[in-house]
Each structure stands twice: as C-alpha cells, then as structure tokens.
Amino acid sequence: MAAVWQQILFLRFPFEPWLRASVSYRVFGLLQGWRGGSWLLQWAEPLGAMILCVLLVAAPFVSTTLIGFLLLACAGYWILLSLSDLPLGQVTGIHLLVALYGGIAAIATVLSPVKGAALSGLVQLLLYLIFFAFCARVLRSPKILAAVIWVYLMVSLVVSGYGIRQEFFGVEQLATWNDPLSEFANDTRVYSYLGNPNLLAGYLLGAIAFSSVAMLIWRTKIQKTLAAVMFVTNAACLFFTDSRGGWLAMVGAAVVGGLLLYSWYGDRLSPFWRKWLLPLCFGFGAGLLLIAVLGVDAIRLRLLSIFSWRGDSSNNFRINVWLAVLRMIGDRPLLGIGPGHDAFNAVYPQYMESRFSALSAYSIFLETAVETGLLGLTTFVWLLINIFSQALQSLKDFQSQHKIEGLWLVGAIAAMTGLLIQGLFDTVWYRPQVNTLWWLMVGIIAAQIPPCQPTGRDNPSP
Predict the structure, then answer these.
(1) How far apart are CA 221 and CA 379, in angstroms?
(2) Which of 28, 51, 121, 229 is an S-S bond match for 339, by CB 3.0 to 4.6 Å?
(3) Whole-prediction pTM value?
(4) What would the pLDDT profile of 240-253 be if each residue is shown by its tens digit?
(5) Which conformational region is residue 85 in: left (phi greater than 0), alpha (psi within -120 to 50 degrees), or beta?
C-alpha cells in the first residue's frame, strides 16, 4: 500500500519508461553535439548561477517589469541548456506536477471568460514555472547552491538594515496599513525598498530561515557571527513590519525548523536532552511570547486584532473579499476564471461588495481555486505534498551521509512553511520579489533529489 501511495504522489514514479515514450522529451539534447564544442557552455551551471544572482540582487530594488526581463533571461538560458544537454535524471515528481499545474492553467486560460487578461497571467505563471526548472538545473552543485544563498542573504541584510533605519528615523506611510480607529493607527510600519510591509515580511522569511541554518553550516567564527547578525537583523525588521501574517509565519517557520533540527541532531544528544530539549524549547518560546504579549502594547493589540473578526477594518475587508471570491469559485468551480491578477480584476467587480475593491483573493489557496478551479487547487496541494515529502526524504539521505549541506533543506522547508502560513491571509506570494524566492526554494529541493537512471538514449540497447 505504501508503494502505491508513493507512486500516486510521484515519490517513487518510474520515470524511465515514461521518458522513453515521451515525444516532448526528444527535444532535449538536440544540440548536444554543439555543446561539446562550446567553451562557454562548459561553464553552464556557474553562468546560470550568475544570472540567478543578478536576479536576486536586483529583485528588491527594481521594477516588476525589469524582474520580468530577468525571468525571461533565465527562461532563455534554461531552454538553451535543455536543447544542448540531456536531463540526466533531472526529471522528478516535482517537475511533473509543476508541468501538470501549468497545463491546467493553460486550459483555464482557453476557457476563461476574459481570455486576453488570462493570457497575460498565464505568461507570467509560465515564467515562474520555468524559473523553477532553471533553479533545479543550476543548483545541483553544493558550492553553487551555497554561493547563491550567500548572495540572497547579503542582499536581505541590506534590505532589512534599511527597514530598521525606517523604524528608528521614521518613514512616510504609503497607504492606510493600520486600522484608523485603533490605538496603533499612527504606528510606523516599515517597508524598506519593497514599498509594502506585508511584502517585506514575506521577502524576509527565507532570509531568516537560511541565516539560522547558516550559523550551523558556515565553518569559521567570522562566518557564524555574520550569519547571527543576519538572523537578528532580518528577524527584527520583520517584527517592525507589524505584519500579523508575517509574525505568525515566522513562528510557524521557527517551529518547523526547530523540529527538523531536533531530528537532525537528535542522535547526538544525551538521553536527558533527547527527552527534554523540545519541551524546554517550546516552553521557553511560549513564555517569551506570553511576556511579549503582556508587556508590549503594540504586540498585544496587533495579535488581539486577529480575533476581533469584523471589528478590525483589515479583517472586515478580507472577509468581504473572501465571501465574494467564494461566489466566484461557485460559478466556475472546475477550472476557474484563468490565471493572473488581470483576470481577477476583470471578473471580481461583478461579485464584490460595495466599497471593497480588491486586487487579489487575499489567500493563495482561494486565489488558486478562483484562477484554476478545484482541479488547479487539487494539483497545487498535490504538488505541496510531493515537495515536502521529497524534501524530507532528501534530508534523511543527507543525514545518513553526514553532509551538513543538507541543512539548507531545513531552511527551505521552514521558509516555505512560513510563506504558506502568511499566504492563508495574504497574496504577497504572487508578487515577483516573493514568488521568485518561493520557486527558488522549490528548485533547491528538486535539485537535491537523487537522480533517476539515465534513459535509453544514454545507454542504447544493442
């Protein structure tokens, strides 16, 4: 039964026969002979990592249009690599489910009531999906992976440092982010270079997760000190965003990351610490949280506002949007209205309550359902299960081989958990600065999956 379940989830899927019979697979490697004579493509992975690093450096500071051009560059380079090289075991269950989700989105676009708007959203979605394949292709080397994460952490340090400066020196609030009738109506919410506190919180979740495991992976005292500074700076900046979803996401990421680290180091602990470490850590964390809630008015008011239902203007706004989105899903349950915020903006006014215009569904799961229907939502959940299952299996493999680099997977899993928690109540996940990080982490996980056997084209039958 377990084997059947693994095949259903594509955890142990027989890719070899499928690849041999696949017409689309024959495109791979058409220019393999040309690659052999190309000096440039002998450095394919480092060059791809450089393009990826340019994107990571630029993302917080430039327009979404420029990010789109950089994603196009990544897509073009991935196509070049695909035509000039065989996959060599690079196809995983994650790849197949990502392709399936893209196919469902394409069908939803064809059947959309606003085809032009949905087509624009489909192009953007496909860029992200190809970006995942690009990351999974170039991040297989531990050295390249470590270098790319280092670049992201250095950029996030600049972003969070500027955000902390805004907290102490003040900054103009670009929108009404606080309930004007609440006691914290005039509080400063930092947004750094990203222009939105919730977006900044989502951007920093990955930096917090990766900097925490960097303290364990990096070897020298200077490196570990730098990682600690990054962790404290990123966490402080996220706190200053006053993003309730971001706070909950950080707590969720910390819990998941802590459990994974306990599993990693559990065998090295004495019987006493194996028994009591988790209760002590959770008790200490709960105590700190209780002290913060009771002792800091801003924290208490922000957290209590979560449970005020319609008593908080932000809650009330989201509830009205969610109700309208549920009606949209009810009218087109199977394949939705088509992908992208343009399609949403074209259809949503027909369902919205007066005075509650919105650019998105304010929940990534509702957004997925309204864009690609229940078929798309089911595939998305299927993909999530596959990603986390594959990541945990790869983590066990690294642990059995005593490879400390496996802890980068702990950071990826924790960060993705945090983004999903924040995504329950917001859709900053769809903004390029965060969406690229999401697919980067999915690509990191896919890149660490052990390769399947090469196809018959590599080992021809006599």
Answers:
(1) 44
(2) 121
(3) 0.90
(4) 998 889 999 999 99
(5) beta
